[in-house]
């Protein structure tokens, strides 16, 4: 299985980079993992809703250009479906059984995802109604993917 994280914004914090490397290494036993970091658009402090929409559109274009035709796209979206860790594990397994071996998880920038990206998504997933920093969210997503593989194989990790 091939898993791609398409993310907007660069990681700056060393501890987050180290966590990403650790989970990427752990995941390499189960899948091929690729992380695509896209440059975020600078948002003025008092941006109007029109300016914010334009920024989301620009970031959305970058995201869409990174998505291959054969990818099953999972958009991380506050209006998406919430799953337990067990349900998430079954979701990934089911995708593989249905022949979707190229899965792209898309994490937008600080303003979220454009309508075009949400329309391209095959599935919308919500981790929580809370808002998280998108840099930290990468670690959380990789951890849940790793947990999902461990659960589906009956390996000790999930408690």
Automatic annotation (TrEMBL):
Q: Write out the similarity annotation.
A: Belongs to the RNA methyltransferase RlmH family.
Fetch the CDD domains from UniProt: RlmH-like (cd18081)
Enzymatic reactions: pseudouridine(1915) in 23S rRNA + S-adenosyl-L-methionine = N(3)-methylpseudouridine(1915) in 23S rRNA + S-adenosyl-L-homocysteine + H(+)
Q: Name one Pfam family in it.
A: SPOUT_MTase
Residues that bind S-adenosyl-L-methionine? 76, 108, 127-132
Q: Mind listing the UniProt keywords for this protein, alphabetically?
A: Cytoplasm, Methyltransferase, rRNA processing, S-adenosyl-L-methionine, Transferase
EC numbers: 2.1.1.177
GO biological process per UniProt:
methylation
Localized where?
Cytoplasm
Q: What is this protein's record name?
A: Ribosomal RNA large subunit methyltransferase H
Q: What does this protein do?
A: Specifically methylates the pseudouridine at position 1915 (m3Psi1915) in 23S rRNA.
Molecular function terms from GO: methyltransferase activity
InterPro entries referenced in this protein's UniProt entry, alphabetically? Alpha/beta_knot_MTases, RlmH-like, tRNA_m1G_MTases_N
Provide the assembly information: Homodimer.
* UniProt superkingdom: Bacteria
């Amino acid at each position: 299985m091939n898993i791609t994280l398409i993310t907007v914004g660069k990681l700056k914090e060393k501890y987050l980079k180290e966590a990403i490397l650790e989970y990427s290494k752990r995941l390499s036993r189960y899948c091929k993992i690729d992380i695509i970091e896209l440059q975020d658009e600078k948002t003025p402090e008092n941006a109007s809703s029109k300016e914010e929409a334009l920024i989301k559109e620009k970031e959305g274009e970058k995201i869409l250009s990174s998505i291959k035709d054969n990818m099953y796209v999972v958009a991380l979206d506050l209006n998406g479906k919430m799953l337990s860790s067990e349900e998430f594990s079954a979701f990934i397994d089911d995708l593989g059984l249905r022949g979707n071996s190229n899965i792209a998880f898309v994490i937008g920038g600080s303003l979220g995802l454009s309508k075009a990206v949400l329309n391209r998504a095959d599935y919308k997933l919500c981790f929580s109604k809370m808002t998280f920093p998108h840099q930290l969210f990468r670690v959380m997503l990789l951890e849940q993917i790793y947990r999902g593989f461990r659960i589906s194989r009956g390996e000790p990790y999930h408690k």
